[in-house]
Amino acid sequence: MPLCNRAAVAVGLALLARESAALAQVVQYTDRATFLADTGASAEPLWPNLGRLDGGASAAYHLGNLTLSISPPSSELWIGSGGYPSVGPDWTTFVAGNDIAVSGRETLNVDFDVLVMAVGFDFAEPTHATVQYPPCSTLCPCANSNFSVTLYREGSPVGQFTYNRPDDTAAFVGFVSVDPFDRIEVRELDGTCDDEYFGRFWTLAAACTCPADLNCDGLADFADYLEFLNFYDAEDPRADVNQDGLIDFADYLEFLNLYEAGC
Q: What is the 3-state secondary structure (H, E, C) of the chain?
């Protein structure tokens, strides 16, 4: 990522942090190339062609650093078309590779294995069949839908924004948050049960500049001490503070030194 772009993103986030909470402290992107150049986000694995997942509204799927699930009123989660005869080999050509499809009004929850500060994904809202399956019908007429995206960290919202992308094109939704987050909830705010599709994801893990700030909240406090103890007890590699390949009392003492130094 060029230094000038990094600086631009940093300045933009700093300015947003001083604005009201109504702005959601989120920088949005509509162009994937610009998003990747500015953030250096990494591609998550391509979606396999599994088709409709078992479990109905309780279905969930984990791949890479992501876990997908849905919420009511959505009723089914699809990863690819699965080659179902009624769907065909692909949902739409507007999204490269296999698509994520949701039955009913779209809701999509994405949990991240690590704290992230930037996320992007391909998106499409077709009004006609580009392969076989028609995204709209008499029961589910085409509608130009608006979506909200709410960012969460440990169950508490840290930001929110809305988006609307043009129909019948390969679109992109990208965003960078002032505050790291571990979950997003995408919600269709209007429209009908017509279909929109989600594609590949890109993520940027949150970088903590203070060694003792294990939870990346900008502080070195008792919560970080407890986090270290959890890592230590679980023999998690993140407890290997001195990076000697062992998790032992030397790491505990090293973390105490970092903790006392603060941020």
A: CCHHHHHHHHHHHHHHHCCCHHHCCEEEECCHHHHHHHHCCEECCCCCCCEECCCHHHCEEEECCEEEECCCCCCEEEECCCCCCCCCCCCCCCCCCCCEEEECCCEEEEEEEEEEEEEEEEEECCCCCCCCCCCCCCCCCCCCCCEEEEEEECCEEEEEEEECCCCCCCEEEEEEEEEEEEEEEEEECCCCCCCCEEEEEEEEECCCCCCCCCCCCCCCCHHHHHHHHHHHHCCCHHHCCCCCCCCCHHHHHHHHHHHHHCC
Single pTM value for the model: 0.77
Domain layout of the chain by residue ranges: 3-205, 222-261
List pLDDT tens digits, range 204-217.
998 777 889 888 77
CATH architecture of structural domain 3-205: Sandwich (2.60)
